[in-house]
Amino acid sequence: MFDVILDYIKKIIKSRLFPITLIFVTLLSVLVYRLFELQIVEGPEIAEETILKTTKTREVKSTRGNIYDRNGKLLATNVLSYSVMLEDSSAVTSNEQRNAMIYNLIHIIEKNGDTLDTKFYIIQNEAGEFEFTIKGAALTRFLKNAFAYLDKKELNDKLETATAEEVYEFLREGTGNNYTHMFGISDEYTVEETLKIMSIRYALFCNYPKHLQITVASNVNEKTVAEVMEESANLPGVEIQKQTRRYYNDSLYFAHILGYTGLISADELEEYDDGTGYYNYTDVIGKSGLEKEYESYLSGKKGSEIVTVGTSGKVIGVVDRIDPVAGNDVYLSINSDLQKDIYHIVEKKLASILLDKLQSNMNYGTKGDSATNILTPIYEVYFALINNNIIDITKFEDPDASDLEKQVYAKYESTLSNVFRQLDTLLAYDNTVPNNKTDDMEDYLDYFYQVMKKQDLLHVSDIPKDDPIYQDYVNSKIGLNKFLIHAISENWVDLSPLEIGDRYYNAQELYNMLVTYVKNILKKDGTFNKKVYHNLVFSYKLSGTEICLLLFEQGVLEYNQVDINRLKNGDVSAYQFIRNKLTSLEITPAMLALDPCSASVVVTDVNSGDVLAMVTYPSYDNNKMANKVEAKYFNQLLHDETKPLLNRPVQQKVAPGSTFKMVTSAAALEEGAVTPYEKIHDLGIFNKSSHPPKCHIYPGSHGNVNIVDALRVSCNYYFYEAAYRLSTDSSGYNGQLGLEKLAKYAAMFGFSKPSGVELPENDPQISDEDPIRSAIGQGTHAYTAAQLSKYITTIANRGVSYDLTLLEKIVDKDGKIVVDNKAKVDQKLTGIKQSTWDNIQQGLYSVVNVAGGSVYNNGLYRNLGVTVAGKTGTSQISKFVPNNALFVSYAPFEKPEISITTIIPNGHTSGNATELTRDIYKLYYNLGDHDKLVDKNVTLPENRSKAFSD
Could you tell me which residues come within 8 angstroms of residue 498 by beta carbon, excluding any fewer than 6 positions away? Predict the structure, then answer.
């Protein structure tokens, strides 16, 4: 068998075809091997090399530095998040394709519960009309961007005349010599969809350099991330990137100090432009607070990378990379624990004052006659819950509204219909009833007039103030209808919104058209609607019980069946229910926006100028403002009657009242107007001045008082006399002379400039009229809590006036101190005699610690455990609102360490400010039960029977 096979092989070898076959098999083997190598072994690498590749340079964002308190507690940091990024990919070749891709991307983002970051400045309102959301310089910049391809003449014309609808249509599908169909968004998309597509197209259009990515949506959830990645083949230029977003710990307590971050705006880009192009439209910067103040330190330094990009627009690889440098860490002078605890103490004190003034009936106390004892009827609380949007009246008409909400809405509709019927009667062309004879309709008519002014329908500046018809209207001799008929005839009314055209209308027809137009505005006006609810509450048609039950129905209060049953069964009155919820702080002063609902407290180290706490109440959650503003929350803040965005310690100015008397004391002693031991008899009324002012104790008298006594009892008469003498020279009384001397010493104590804290601060205002009243802190004086803190700190340390600071140090990521900050000494008052300091400080000591002292009498500081010196102040506003309550102080008197400045706007009496401050001293020096001081159990003021106003 073997021989047969061997013979067969020999036969094949001897064949003439064998060499050819051998060569063929060899070549085939080599070919198969090479194909295997190319396809399997080297396939991915070769495939990559065959793709048409380009390289791009793109920036790598740095990580923002952290912010800490003075003890190293973290206040602001960064957390990992995912963002949807988009670049203007060359893989997309037409408007139609790009718009479809963007529409798909928007659908994915919104379907999964996320929102767009891109900003656009045109909206469609409820009436279906387009309108701009910006004005002034910002609008001009937007229009310049939108019409960037127009020639100069066309552009200037558009800047003057372009309406929101014209800009919308131009961007949607505008054409011209230098451009083609702009964004080319077809009619297949709704207006809402078009505006969203347009917002992204506009962001790409304005983006420079063009290769940079824009952020379409930030902090997106996992569902969005997954779906975008799954759809990546259909989303050229779209990428999911890991980024960091700013996060604030205990945000409520530090929001006004820290501020927040956000995407840079066009205005800010222009502001930060240093010619290098470092900042661009994709950057997140500090928008307010210390985030903005220390932007250059916190932001770090960007890196860059060169990436290889395939024809699909996807990144294939990284060729080179320069790593970014992380931002520096900022350490504040603030003690975060102290800051948080003071916030709670403030809230408790405000609730305590509200409870003290709350009445079960319609008793307003002395309101209208004087501010000495203004009270709050419970009906003001009921309406406040609606007026401050705690109860959302827009939910009443929802299809899924509760039975109670529907019942309340039915009452509203009935009353609204009645109001419009009466308006029709009172605004009839031939009506002769003046406004003040219309009972509860007067307020509606006045608001009708205000809306016309607000809408610029009535050109008030054109109305001569001596016009007899106008004077009759102002003096309630005629009704609004008669005035408006006259105003139309005098061309004071803009009739263009009525779209009259060329048709002729007589005077009555024009008037009726105007009334109808304004009534249609009122029907959609939130303030007008709330006036109807005010009518319902104060006419007792909408009960307190219904209001309280609505708090449960809308989730304002945690569901509690026991409380609900007690309300429904009448086991607890609505009045008592509200008191109970205020006592437990389930309803807070911030929710009600009634007087008082706000306060400022500044605690300062008197020996360094470091601010240890700077509290503003109420506050807000800056996490909802950072990175991407939550539009609904921001709108809520804007319409909150308490103005929570206001940084009160540096932006709210009030008259200092009697806290200013130390300036007058220094001026009087240093200028020789009085001597330390000279006594002046308090006559009650100071008759040396025109419109004679009175001492606060009048018709009583403080008797004979020297300067220490005058500070102790806050004797206004003494300081009137001191100011009169400061204003008198050899030529007699000269009010301007007195004002100049008071201003000189006010400036020495720091009142001629802001306090120095590293936040935007309103300038102080030294009084420029009436030296007599200015001497007791009235006149036109107006200062912030921070400025008063600088002032009392200067008194406590006997003449070192610091520019207050919130900054302790700035440290880089290697732990190296970049900035070691110390408060700058603004000035040293070396020219003031030691005896002057002695008398002023002794006076402040007497206020708190000597019988007859305005604070000593209420007993709040007796046996406190630390010796406090201070001065009360009560500044008057009007007879219709409570006075402002102030207290500036320092401790320990023997060797001062800290000062505390407390302002309660509309706080009724300085006794309330002193009680709040007392609790802060207890907290700081561990003189009381910490948990009890900051818990949510509100008690009535301790100084109720001995409250002091000076």
Answer: 510, 513, 514, 517
